[in-house]
Amino acid sequence: MLKAREQIISVSRDLHEIGLLVRTWGNISCRVDAGHFLVTPSGIQYEDLTPEMIVLVNIKDLSYEGEYLPSSESKVHAAAYRIRPECNFIIHTHQVFASCAGTLGVKKIFTYFEDEDVTIPVARYALPGTDELAKNVAHTLKKYKDSNGIIMANHGTLCLGDNYKEAVYEAEMMETACNNFLVDVCKMDVTQGVEALFGSHLENGKIVYDVKDTPERVRQIHEMIYAKRKDVNFIVHNKSDAVMMVSRIADHMRPLLDDFAQLIGTGVRIPANEGDIYANIKKNVNVVFAPNDGAYCVGSTEDDATAVAIVLDKGCIAYMAAMRNGEAHYLSFFECLKMNRHYRKNYSKLADLGK
Ligand SMILES: [Zn+2]
Question: How much is the pTM?
Answer without folding.
Answer: 0.94
